[in-house]
Amino acid sequence: MKNKNTILLLLAALIISSCNDSFLERYPTDELSPQTVFSSENDLKTYTNSYYSLLQEGSEIYGESTDNIVKSSLPREIQGTRLVPTTDSKWGWSGLRHINFFLTNENVLNFPNEEVKNHYLGLSRFFRAFFYFEKVRYYGDVPWYNQVIESNDDELLQKARDPRSLVMDSVLTDLNFAIAHLDDTKSLERVSKWTALALKSRICLYEGTFRKYHPEFNVADADKFLTEAAEAAQELINSGQYSIYNKTSGPTGKPYLDVFSHLKSDDVMDEIILTRRYDADLGLKHNVQFYLTSRTYGKPGLEKNLVNSYLMSDGSRFTDVAGYDTLQFFDEIQNRDPRLSQTIVTPGYTRINSSQPVSPNFENTTTGYQPIKYLNDPSMDLSSQSAQDLPLFRYAEVLVNFAEAKAELGTLTQADLDLSINQLRDRVGMPHLVLVDANANPDPFLENMYKNVSATNKGVILEIRRERQIELVMELNFRWDDLMRWKEGHLVALPFQGMYFPGPGKYDLDRDGKIDVEIYMGEKPPSTGAFQLPLSDLSGNGKGYVLPNKGVNKVFDEEKDYFWPLPIEDLTLNPNLTQNPGWGK
């Protein structure tokens, strides 16, 4: 049995990690063929275990790059300087070949235990749906393959891109099969029926809103996908399997922050549907705490517009406060949605297992709004020493998906809000979102941000977008996907801004009696221990917002930047492939 498992793992590794990522990859010799080993449930489990490497890990989970988060260096898609690559791993296909090999294998299809067989077929189709969703997000139309491609399959090797509608209908079929046949036992590390429902709500919401807000691509049936998203989320909600974590007994005593502060997701398994496991004893580590605390790596900071989006603690708008845009840090964070102080360093914040208050430190953050989401014990702050689990699917996302899908369909009710958005607000003691009030008085700040929303229920759509931006910040780069599907790419090009300072001087950000920042004019003065920032790094004439990445002229091309370019090498190998609009031939 041990030898058989080794063979299966080797086979999977060779298929999914081949140095040649084209359809011409070859399988190992016959002695490693699944035809000889797919004879037990353990064989099916062992082979399909390697699918999980397709899921996000490490910085792909926490390292958001959008208008929400400002880093010390910006990726090309944020600057607007992407180039057509020679090769690109995003166009890789080995993961699909691995899945299709299993789905078309005779021993698998003839496996005697129907329930076991269908579970692993469902698992494979879950991952095929996940794989193709990634491809469609990046490229739009892509070739659809549901079989293994061999070296002599010239017709398939030279296949053109299939229409997005065909691909996404096929993805939906895969998801429905997975939901019908996957085990319904809750598991933090294995895909279940509940994971498939969560993925379906995510994918169908993306697809429905993309079709709605991108009429230029002429893809119909937006409402079909929005309905599928709402129904998938509704089924998961009605199951009663998950709930919003609201305990105050966690590492920080703050329920929202503790969803991410616990070392193990087992402590928040009421909300976490699937997690990426890490374990220091096994050498399975990542880098989130070094990313959040280092002076030399990342230096992420929340952007000013995101901070402005957090409501007051009484539910009123911060952006309705007179002079909100020139409030200094201590004043602007008073009486806000508690999720703000559970996302960034605010006065009185202390690290886990420490009683020493921490002030915002510009040595570690570009904007002054220093993230604390995911932080655990300071002993894990060194490079590649973080070992806390990282959530991949959580119930909160499903609730937001449900509310947004219903709002975009125009069928949202107050009962729907109470079942979804208001569950998230209850966790942190925020007033409920009221449907009638939101639609009667849309927020001008959000209207200016999201220019494409024009429905009669505009107000509540905008409020749900606010909720999504706040609740899911720094998770799986959701924000980039949201801006792309809503056709709000212009937000990527806005200049990044940080804290406001009224002019030169010394500033005690948290009013603990210690100077944290010194804004100087002219020659840099001798250091007094505070972070020193030249006046020229502020946005105005002698005052203004901190300007991170000063000198970077961000752009977003509405004609091409919603998709990525196909690699030159693949266009050369297959003349039937066409380049995405705006990226050349």
Automatic annotation (TrEMBL):
Gene3D superfamilies: 1.25.40.390. It comes from the Bacteria. This is Starch-binding associating with outer membrane. Belongs to the SusD family. It holds the Pfam family SusD_RagB. InterPro entries: SusD-like_N (IPR033985), SusD_RagB_dom (IPR012944), TPR-like_helical_dom_sf (IPR011990). Residues 294-583 form the RagB/SusD domain. Residues 110-205 form the SusD-like N-terminal domain. Keywords: Cell outer membrane, Membrane, Signal. The keyword Membrane applies. The keyword Cytoplasm does not apply. It is found in: Cell outer membrane. GO terms for cellular component: cell outer membrane.
